[in-house]
């Protein structure tokens, strides 16, 4: 009902606020690859919790507790992921192309929404929404953790750029 929607909306906003406050402190201490893996795994776990609230339908307090924890975590980790992505974007894109790159990224994201909605509309005929949410979050978490295991490079560490310049001379 509306009470649950208010509670999860408030928890989500609170989680985003907390994430915004702690991001500068975390980003100074943790490398970006590790941070993204942890943020992505945290978001996946939070996302898996939300549909699990359906297993305790009869217990209103349990549904509220699970939903609030799930949305608090989701808001927190979405905030951290968003800020990390924005910082990486600003670090990696040449300032002369920043506006064009941002426009291209936004256009791609906007174009993906109706395509994804169409595909999910087909899938939901055969698979429950709960199962889609659980599977999607598991795959998302694996993607983030897999990027860390594969040691995907997100930014040049201090000194690496200078080393490349010196080696080319």
Care to describe what's here?
By secondary structure, this protein is mainly alpha-helical. Helix 1 packs parallel to helix 3.
Brief write-up:
The chain is built from 6 helices and no strands. It has helices at residues 2-29, 32-52, 60-92, 98-123, 129-149, 160-168.
Give helix and strand order, one letter per element, not per position. HHHHHH
- The N- and C-terminal alpha carbons lie at a distance of 67 Å
Overall geometry comes to globular
The whole-number mean of residue pLDDT values reads: 86
Largest sheet: none
Helix content: over 70%
Number of E-type strands: 0
Unreliable runs: 161-166
Q: Write down the Rg.
A: 19 Å
Strand content: under 5%
Helical run tally = 6
Category by helix and strand content:
mainly alpha
Key features?
82% helix, 6 helices, 169 residues
Give me the secondary-structure topology.
Elements: H1 2-29, H2 32-52, H3 60-92, H4 98-123, H5 129-149, H6 160-168
């Amino acid at each position: 009902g509306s009470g649950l929607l208010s509670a999860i909306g408030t928890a989500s906003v609170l989680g985003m606020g907390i994430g915004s406050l702690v991001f500068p402190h975390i980003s100074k201490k943790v490398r970006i690859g590790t941070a993204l893996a942890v943020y992505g795994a945290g978001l996946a776990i939070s996302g898996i919790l939300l549909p699990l609230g359906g297993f305790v339908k009869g217990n209103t307090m349990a549904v509220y507790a699970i939903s609030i924890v799930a949305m608090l975590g989701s808001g927190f980790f979405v905030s951290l992921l968003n800020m990390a992505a924005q910082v990486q974007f600003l670090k990696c894109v040449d300032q002369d192309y920043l506006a064009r790159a941002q426009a291209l990224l936004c256009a791609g994201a906007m174009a993906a929404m109706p395509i994804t909605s169409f595909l999910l509309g087909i899938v939901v005929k055969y698979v429950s929404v709960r199962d889609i949410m659980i599977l999607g979050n598991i795959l998302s978490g694996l993607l983030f953790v897999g990027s860390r295991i594969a040691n995907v490079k997100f930014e040049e560490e201090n000194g690496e750029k200078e080393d490349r310049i010196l080696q080319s001379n």
